[in-house]
Amino acid sequence: MTADKPLSNRDVRRAPLLDARAATRCPLRTHLMIEPPEHVVEQPLPVDVLVRIEEGRAFEDQVMAEVAAAVGDLPTLTGDEAATLAAMAAGVPVIPQAELRDHEGRRTGRPDLLVALPDPTPGGRTAYMPVEVKAHLVTAKAKGGSLGPLRACAHTDVADGLDPAAMAEVEGPWTRKRTDDLLQLAHYQRLLEHHGHAGPGWAGVIGSDRTLALVDLTAPTFQSWRNTTGRWSTLEKYDREFGFRLDVAALATDRVDGLTDEDPLVVPARSSECDRCRFEGVCTPRMEDADELTLLPKVTWDVRQRLHASGLTTRTALALADPTALPTKAIREAADHARVQTSGVPLAKVRGADVLELPRADVEVDVDMESTADGRVYLWGCLVTDRRAGTPPEYVPFVDFAPELDDTAVFVAFWDWLQRTRKAAIDAERSFAAYCWAGGGAEDRYLRLYGPRIGVDVESFITSPEWVDLHRVARAHVTTGGSLGLKVVAGRLGFQWRDDDPGGGQSMVWYGDAVAGSHEQQRRLLDYNADDVEATRWVRERLAEVWADLPRVGDLMPTG
Ligand code: SF4
User: Fold this and answer.
1) 319 is a domain residue
2) Is the CB–ligand 1 distance for residue 433 below 6 Å?
3) Same-domain check for residues 280 and 332
4) With a 6 A CB cut-off, is 268 part of the ligand 1 pocket?
5) Which spans are transmembrane here (predicted)?
6) DSSP conformational letter for 44
């Protein structure tokens, strides 16, 4: 299955060559990169994104060095197209940092590695498979199943020559979330086809555990509500996605050159990509003006298209729709989010939440932890409130900023203090509860990591009524029309953080400085953590105070 020419409906010959990310990139971004809006305010990338990019590069350099050491004789190409073509023609077994272009298909790409396969192409040339290096796990088992059987080996096995077809299959460890990896590999496969050096469809990703996961780009893999004939292979999905971006790019080019005044093929639609896109400042106001459905949580482009097909084209229309006529639970929830967003209320009761079931105690401890990039907790922060005594809450941190972090010792100190505080409350015949804002379950996960390490029973504590996940409580009772993160919920209830830009990624940068001895950043991290535990206490107190006055989501109507 080859794509001899672009699967595009337009004359794309004047479009720029698109890179490997094009097929997964927001199509409007492709348009705006060619026809930029007048007033683009450059936004610096979030610090955590920059840190991840830097870590990704460092990981890639390390893996490439290990592969080079295993192979022993790697050519140095550094993105030279002529040298890449010469190396492929000579049948070099492993080619790093290749550069390939396809002017007919309007593609360009730089696969990290091209690895020769044992069987030549039908034309008698050396066949290659593309391999990418990624600083994430590629073999973690996905919750919702897998993308099918997987063949895998160590990354340095490329030195001995690989025959993916002869390797044993492992069932189901491929993570679902890496569509972008697969489409990137499909892009390189199409480039190899153009140059007559493609294999039958094998490709690989070296993940953060240095496993080389091999995938068959021709295997049925992707399902879509638009596809009624079964699953698409990665190559089929890629061709559709890439072909559409080519149409977008071709039209944008023609508009720039004054050859057409046809409207762009795409409109702004919210996705996770927007947060790190330079056009966000242009697109968000346009989405607000258009009352765009993708501004609602979990309304993806596909869901939006389904809603449009049923005549619901704006948040307001969805908010006004009869909930009993909406087809799925997810769409009914989206309609409730739309009611909150279009009515302008900061917080509303979810359906069925008539009574606030919020566990309270005489002695309450709010808990929040901060961890390093490699998952070690350096700070357990606690805010203890004796409600009967009526004394001000006290912040008690357990922290280690030493370069040689002893995270087990930090946990021992925290756990001992928590148990002593609990025992003192119970001995004084007072009730006790500890609270966290777990969301993704980090606190429970770390309790389960460190508890067995020091031989204490954390399980009976985690499952007891004394350990309360306030995020779960909030989710059962209120909606913001969007995120239920602590920052949003506490903010809607009037809480303000001392730091202008609190956030997990930012805190990792502060931590690096704190470990290097910066007292200012140590103080900042403690203040940040103290604000987080104060915020969970604030949510508990304020929610109890305002509960009776909160509107029900079903009663909300769009304003304006
Ligand atoms: S801000 Fe979002 S919608 Fe706009 S171009 Fe960027 S990713 Fe696309």
Assistant:
1) yes
2) no
3) yes
4) yes
5) none
6) P
Angle at 398 between CA 393 and CA 401, to 5 degrees: 130
- And the tokens for 200? 């039958």
Question: Is any atom of ligand 1 closer than 6 Å to the C-beta of 283?
Answer: yes
Residue type present at position 261: D
Instruction: Give the residue ranges of the chain where pLDDT is below 70.
Output: 1-8, 42-48, 77-78, 139-149, 171-177, 224-229, 439-440, 500-505, 560
Do residues 367 and 345 share a domain? Answer: no
- The residue range of the domain holding 420 is 363-549
What pLDDT digit, counting tens, does each position of 392-412 carry?
999 999 999 999 999 999 999
Q: What six digits make up the tokens of 255? A: 């508009």
Give how far the C-alpha of residue 8 lies from the chain's centroid of Cα atoms, to the nearest Å: 29
Rg over CA atoms, the chain:
27
Q: Which residues 6+ apart lie within 8 Å of 105 measured at CB?
A: 3, 5, 6, 190, 191, 194
Cα-based angle 234, 237, 240 (whole degrees, multiple of 5): 150
Nearest atom in ligand 1 to the alpha carbon of residue 31 is: 5
Q: How many domains does the chain have?
A: 3
For ligand 1, the distance from its centroid to the CA atom of residue 480, given in whole angstroms, is 23
Ligand 1 midpoint to CA 13 (Å): 25
Dmax of the chain from CA atoms? 85
Question: Cα separation of 477 and 362, whole Å?
Answer: 23
Residue 280 in contact with ligand 1 by CB distance below 6 A: yes
Residue nearest to atom 1 of ligand 1 (CA): 280
Exposed e or buried b for every residue in 501-527, given b needs 16+ CB within 10 A?
ebeeebbbebbebbbeeeeebbebbbe
Amino acid at site 545: E
The two structure tokens encoding residue 363: 């002695």
Domain edge (last residue) among 287, 318, 349: 349
Question: One-letter amino acid identity for 142?
Answer: A
Evaluate whether residue 336 is within a structural domain: yes
Please name the helix (run of DSSP H) or strand (run of DSSP E) that holds residue 381, with its range, or none. strand 377-386
Instruction: Give residue-wise pLDDT tens across range 276-288.
Output: 888 998 999 999 9
